[in-house]
Amino acid sequence: MRKTEYDFWPGNYISFPSSIKLFNDEETGWAIWQSPVISVTPESSMKVEVHSKQENILTKWSLVRVDGFDGEKWRWVEGMRLPLGSTGWVPRNFTFSVPSDIRAIKVGLSCTHAVNGVPAIAWFDDLGVYQDGVLIYANDFTAPLLRLAMSVAGPLTVGAGAIIVSEGLRPAS
Ligand SMILES: [Ca+2]
To answer: Which residue has the higher pLDDT, 167 or 83?
Structure first.
């Protein structure tokens, strides 16, 4: 099963209370999360930053990727691979220039597939997208239902858990 879920665990976070967790125990395909469409200005300077944590990334293709819309179709613009192996939380970022024909982007977070039955897991938190130094999109991956619950009960009553966003996602074509 491939699944994408909000993950929260008080001993295991960057900024309370949650991150996005991508889990994949299938031998092909990716678990993915994709941002909403973000409007951008052609030829502006972009920076994408995110914190990531991973377990058993055993093949090369866990990515933070940017796709852009050129008026007819979405296409690859830029990306950053995660390293192989397992890590704690690490801040990562990359920069690029918006191509002259691109006016909107989506940021995708992906987790590669299992190898020899060992599931691949990647967590992401604190995604930020900057255009010419100005923050234009941010996501701290607090699940909407959790945010609602916290507004009623307060953050200290929240324990560990997960809220599933989706299961069995295919990579974007
Ligand atoms: Ca968070």
So the answer is: 83
